[in-house]
Target: Cytidylate kinase
Amino acid sequence: MVAIDGPAGSGKSSVSKEVARRLGWGFLDTGAAYRALAWHAAASGVDTEDAASVVSCLDSFDYAIGTDPAGYAVRVGSVDVTEAIREPGISAIVSAVARIPEVRTHLIEVFRAIMAAEERAGIVVEGRDITTVVAPDAPVRILLTASEEARVARRSAELVGHSVSTTGEQLRRRDLADSKVVDFMNAAEGVTTVDSTELDFDQTVEAVIAVIRDSQAHAG
Ligand SMILES: Nc1ncnc2c1ncn2[C@@H]1O[C@H](COP(=O)(O)OP(=O)(O)OP(=O)(O)O)[C@@H](O)[C@H]1O
Ligand SMILES: Nc1ccn([C@@H]2O[C@H](COP(=O)(O)O)[C@@H](O)[C@H]2O)c(=O)n1
Model:
C-alpha cells in the first residue's frame, strides 16, 4: 500500500491515479468522501457550518466509490455525484464538514474497509491524513508538495471561467482551514517528500514510482 498526502492542487489525485494505473493497483481518493458528505448535507438542506446537523446526516449517508484508476464513480445512494462534488461550491463548504471529529472517525472506518477489500496487488490512497492517521503503518508514505504558485497555476488551468486570483484565494482558504485539523504541510517521521514544483506531470509520476521501487528494494 502507498499513502500519499499533500495540500490542495499538489497533484495527489491525478498523480496517484496514474501511479496506480501503471502498477496495476487500486486507487482511493479519500477527499471524494468528504466532498460527497458535504454534497449530501447540502442536498438534505442542512447548514454545513452546524456540526450537529452534519453529524445527523451520517446515518443516511450511503456512500460508494470505485478503486479502478482507469475510471471510478462516486455515488450517494442512487445518485452519481462524481462531477457535482468537484464544483467550487462544494470545495467552499467541504472543510467545515471535514473538521468535525465524528465525521472523520466515520469516514476513516469507511476508508479502511475499502482498503481491506481491495483485490488488486496494492492500493494507492491519497488525502490529507493518510500517512499519519488512516494508514500510518503503510510500507510507503509520501508527502506530495508543490509551491503555492505552481498549485494555483495548475488549478487555474483546470477551472475555465474562474479568475486566477479567485482560484488562488479559494485554494489558500481551504489549505488554511484544513491545516488546522491535520498537518499535511510537513512530512511526519518516515514520510518521503516529493516536491513537484519543478517537475512536469510525467516526471512527478516517475518520482513517486521511484520512491515505491526504492522502498520495495530495501524491503528485500
Ligand atoms: N507535476 C505536475 N505538473 C503539471 N501539472 C500537474 C502536475 N501534477 C499535477 N498536475 C495537474 O495539477 C492539477 C491539480 O492536480 P490534482 O487535482 O491531482 O491535485 P490534488 O492534490 O488532488 O488537489 P485537491 O486536493 O484540490 O483535490 C491537475 O490538473 C493535474 O493534472
Ligand atoms: N484525507 C482527507 C482528504 C480530504 N479531506 C478534506 O476533504 C477536502 C477535499 O479533498 P480533496 O483532496 O478532494 O481536495 C479537503 O479540502 C479536506 O477538507 C480531509 O480532511 N482528509
